Amino acid sequence: MPNVAHFFEGVEKLLEICFDESSSPNGDLRNITRGEWENLLCHVKCEIISYIKNDSIDAFLLSESSMFVSKRRWILKTCGTTTPLKCLEQLLQLAKLEGYHVISDIFYSRKNFTRPEIQMSPHEGFFEEVTYLDTIFPEGRSYCLGSINLECWYLYTFSKPELKALPHLIVEEKSTDADPDQTIEILMQDLDKDIMSAFTKSKFTTGREVTAYSGIDKILPEMHIDDFLFDPCGYSMNGIRENGEYMTIHITPEEKFSYVSFESNVALNNYTKLISQVIKTFKPGKFIVTIFANKSSLAYETMKELEIEYSTLSNWRRTDMQCCNFPSYNLLFAQYSRALEKVL
Ligand SMILES: C[S@+](CC[C@H](N)C(=O)[O-])C[C@H]1O[C@@H](n2cnc3c(N)ncnc32)[C@H](O)[C@@H]1O
């Protein structure tokens, strides 16, 4: 048997679709049954391992990351060699049965993979992903932020408000009084060895124990948490609040390819403290921050000027920062790496 070195691609593919009001009075994506989600996730090559819900949002923990479902919004975040774009047609059909014929926003994003050559079609490269998405949404736009030849972050989104997709799917401009919406992601690599060693079965038995030990439960208080510790290592958690806010953290602790992702839609007018707390909890060697905010969100006006500062400012070097204006969203992208220690 060839000695193939163990590797897991922690970097996730993140797909988010928001629909306009349903044409059916009882239309709600949460009416989609567990069986229907399981069938859909077969196309992605992952399974549901756990589930929590409240009046605003359903949160599924998956064998490869997470899925969140609220009335009009669906979020799928999957890592490894999963194929999330392959479930799109089925998702749109299920949504249509709930009266969702009009898409208001679509985002597909991911960081560059550590090992792109192990991905499966249509994820063998961003160009292939865009070509696949274009067959469903012919006028979507694709972007690459950061450095194309080093670390970067890819995004596919609609930028034209009056865009038409499949004949029965219309993408319309979001009115300025749309619900506030914002998403922050922090994607971390080269993490502290000692901190990562906690996310193993040799140290803890359950997700609950390591959630408390690591301080994950302190990052955003009053979250109802669903957590899972993989065997022999690896960790995933979803947290939800009654108002529809969520957080999700996924951890690949293996030293050679350690990766941690944090994502939340929590409404804040400044994310500096939250970013600092996440960074202190996991101690990465480098990380990327992305913040999306629509015109109604608290973050919209302030994020362009956002200068991310830390008490240990001198330890971080910002290698990139870009801001983009889309028709209904602002996007901030920033990349940091640990600066070399100063010899005094
Ligand atoms: C699903 S978790 C979290 C992935 C996430 N995208 C991240 O941020 O790293 C992946 C970690 O769990 C480990 N793992 C153990 N069993 C697994 C399984 N059955 N499926 C997926 N990952 C598993 C992997 O080696 C890896 O360390």
From TrEMBL:
Its EC number is 4.1.1.50. Belongs to the eukaryotic AdoMetDC family. Substrate binds at residues 8, 64, 230, 254. One of its GO terms (molecular function) is adenosylmethionine decarboxylase activity. GO terms for cellular component: cytosol. It catalyses: S-adenosyl-L-methionine + H(+) = S-adenosyl 3-(methylsulfanyl)propylamine + CO2. GO terms for biological process: spermidine biosynthetic process; spermine biosynthetic process. It comes from the Eukaryota. Pathway: Amine and polyamine biosynthesis; S-adenosylmethioninamine biosynthesis; S-adenosylmethioninamine from S-adenosyl-L-methionine: step 1/1. Pfam families: SAM_decarbox. The active site is at 65 (schiff-base intermediate with substrate), 79 (proton donor), 236 (proton acceptor), 250 (proton acceptor). The record marks 64-65 as: Cleavage (non-hydrolytic). It is an enzyme of class 4 (lyase). PROSITE patterns: ADOMETDC. This is S-adenosylmethionine decarboxylase proenzyme. The modification Pyruvic acid (Ser) is found at residue 65. Its cofactor is pyruvate. InterPro entries: AdoMetDC-like, S-AdoMet_decarboxylase_euk, S-AdoMet_deCO2ase_core, S-AdoMet_deCO2ase_CS. Keywords: Autocatalytic cleavage, Decarboxylase, Lyase, Polyamine biosynthesis, Pyruvate, S-adenosyl-L-methionine, Schiff base, Spermidine biosynthesis, Zymogen. Binds 1 pyruvoyl group covalently per subunit. It comes from Drosophila grimshawi.
